[in-house]
Amino acid sequence: MHEVIVCEKPTSAEKIAKALSPSAKKKVYNKKVKYWELKKGSKDITVVSAVGHLYSLTPDNPKDKVYFDLHWAPAYEVNKRGSGFTKDYVRAIKKLGRNADSYIHACDYDTEGTLIGYNALKYACGQENLDKVSRMKFSTLTKKDLLEAYDNRIELDMNQVDTGIARHVLDYYFGVNISKALMKSVSNAKHRFLKLSAGRVQTPTLSILVEREKEIKDFVPEPYWLIKAVVEGNIEVNHIDGKIFDRDRAEEIMTKCQGKDAIVDRISFSNSTTKPPVPFNLGGLQSEAYNVFGFSPKKTQTIAQNLYTSGYTSYPRTSSQKLPESLDFKSIFTQLGYDGEFKKHIDQLPSKLKPNNGKKDDAAHPAIHPTGILPQGLSKDDKKIYELIVYRFISVFFEAAKFETMSATLDIEGEKFRFKRRRVTHKGWMEHYPFRKIDDEIFPDIKEDDLMKVLELISDEKETKPPARYNQASLIKELEKRELGTKATRADIIDKLYDRKYITGTQQIEVNQLGENMIDTLSIYCNNLTSEELTRDLQIKLDGISNNKSTRREIIDEGEKDVKVILEDITKNSNEIGSKLYESYQESNIIGTCPTCGGNLVKRYSPKTKSSFVGCANYPDCTTSYSIPKGTNFLKKTCEKCGLPIISFGKPRQRACLDSNCGKDKTKIHKPTEVGKCPNCGKPLLKRSGRYGEFIGCKGFPKCKFTCSVDELESKLK
DNA sequence: GCAAGGTC
């Protein structure tokens, strides 16, 4: 009897194989794809694995104007870029998973996992009617759970399969068709191509950012005053009222207290503790890496994936903030202890290892943790993430940090002022997590009724501030809170918004005019796409399929009808929509004013030279243009000499005027002068002028690449 | 050319 077990990813295949038989043999297909062979009773079992979705939706007829007729095709054929690695896995499953006597679907027990296994069984193993298929249902990859799941297999839940299919189809219907319609409106109205996209997750995400921009724009700042005094010992004390919005009151306090001394009114002490942090889930790691190292969530995710595939850390795409006891902490610490730096901390661990687990859980994976295998030769950035994971893992086992707080109230002519100092009395976990600053202030030596000289009395006029813009880490947190996207896709969604030029800015995300116009446009024609309504709707509909209240066909037909209404609306107003989108796109690209005609200077892309340049928007009437180095940023500052924007470019970043000839005598630099013969090819050598000043280059460029600095010329010619 | 969701 031959049995084939299909898993979601190689690591779960390994765990399942080893759980079923400790003597399972690891094999490799075509030098790339791992699989396992084992014997159990009379059965010869082959454990193969997918790598996530192996099949993607694609239109039956790509030439159709709208896509409602779709079928599944291998992912590597549909998305040529990015899914190439799935090809070997599909081949391996096709080769190893044919003509078995029985099949087991052992992918993650969730909607996507169910579909991943279903498609693999249907299209790669040829199990169309599923009569030989059973399903393993497990919530962790521990041996106990897996054996139980194997012994108590259930029937494949076709409602769950249909739920997955409907999710894919509806996202395709809305996303691809509406994106296409928007791009078409631009090409109809302006005869230009603009890469645009909309979708169930990316559009509400953009909308959150636009909403914040509006709050900032509408914000009316209110003046307030902060009154503080500096007393003996350079201690800053703040007036007890905090923000004072009444100017008269602020002035009253100032006049009253001017030139008067302070008396210590009351001193009190209190104790507090700070618990250790919780173990990392993906969002937590992304957020911490952003705050500590400034890494983008995408970068952190890529590094975490590398560390995982290299065997140094656990599976990164988890929501769990819990470390289950089944993990064998002791042996992980023993191995980590071979590193001298880690050992210093591990040696101080309490004898009873109990992690400070967080609330969030994940059915399939524990929180991110080191495996114990010590890495070698990691790049600088990989090492940073690895150490962050290790120290977080260590610190969650330590006791809380303890603090003592001193609060003092001072009296100046009946007005109360106060200050607080906090000092650490027991560092606890903080001593073992080097990424947090520890508050440790000195308590001044004062007692109640002391008279203190006021050295300075200050009234600071301030303004209330609008809410802060999101950064990538705070946006990911917001998406988690609103349950938009998944842990695996949130960083990609944000990247996509940058890629489409909807948003810009790294420290703070700002929305471009194009992004704002997308939301304005879509909120008119399909409000449920800009809000989170579509995701909520989808969830309700999918739940309907799961519990037999509706069928996949009904839900998909409904979606088709909804999308068709939206598409009709967009087509009707195509001209207006297209014009506005393109114009807003151009506005986003305005970087200054043309010195020749006063028009707008815009950043453009030349497909011929595959490079960006700056040109006048009035082209061809005005032909003013400037070349720019790769990776140029336009700063808000302008050149003092000519008023053009200052650009930053290169590594390390340097700044210069957009006009590389700014401030130079133009008659000289445009005529390269001959200064000798090229030592490489014999052609004339020319003194040229570039962005970085004068240099010597061969006339035979680009065939001959000889260059040197003006100073080097003499020695090179010898 | 276009989505969102898995994964290396």
TrEMBL record:
CDD domains, per database record: TOP1Ac
SUPFAM superfamilies hit by this protein: Prokaryotic type I DNA topoisomerase, Zinc beta-ribbon
Region Interaction with DNA, residue ranges: 197-202
Domain (Topo IA-type catalytic): residue spans on this chain: 157-567
UniProt catalytic activity: ATP-independent breakage of single-stranded DNA, followed by passage and rejoining
GO molecular function terms noted in the UniProt entry: DNA binding; DNA topoisomerase type I (single strand cut, ATP-independent) activity; zinc ion binding
Residue stretches making up the Toprim domain: 2-142
One Pfam entry name: Topoisom_bac
GO terms classed as biological process: DNA recombination; DNA repair; DNA topological change
Keywords, in A-Z order: DNA-binding, Isomerase, Magnesium, Metal-binding, Topoisomerase, Zinc, Zinc-finger
GO CC terms in record: chromosome
Record-linked PROSITE patterns: TOPO_IA_1, TOPO_IA_2, TOPRIM
Coiled coil segments of this chain: none
Name of the top EC class for this enzyme: isomerase
Chain positions of site Interaction with DNA: 53, 167, 171, 317, 500
Active site: 315
Task performed by this protein: Releases the supercoiling and torsional tension of DNA, which is introduced during the DNA replication and transcription, by transiently cleaving and rejoining one strand of the DNA duplex. Introduces a single-strand break via transesterification at a target site in duplex DNA. The scissile phosphodiester is attacked by the catalytic tyrosine of the enzyme, resulting in the formation of a DNA-(5'-phosphotyrosyl)-enzyme intermediate and the expulsion of a 3'-OH DNA strand. The free DNA strand then undergoes passage around the unbroken strand, thus removing DNA supercoils.
PANTHER family reported for this sequence: DNA TOPOISOMERASE 1 (PTHR11390:SF26), PROKARYOTIC DNA TOPOISOMERASE (PTHR11390)
Name under which the protein is recorded: DNA topoisomerase 1
Organism from which the protein derives: Methanobrevibacter gottschalkii DSM 11977
Chain's gene name: topA
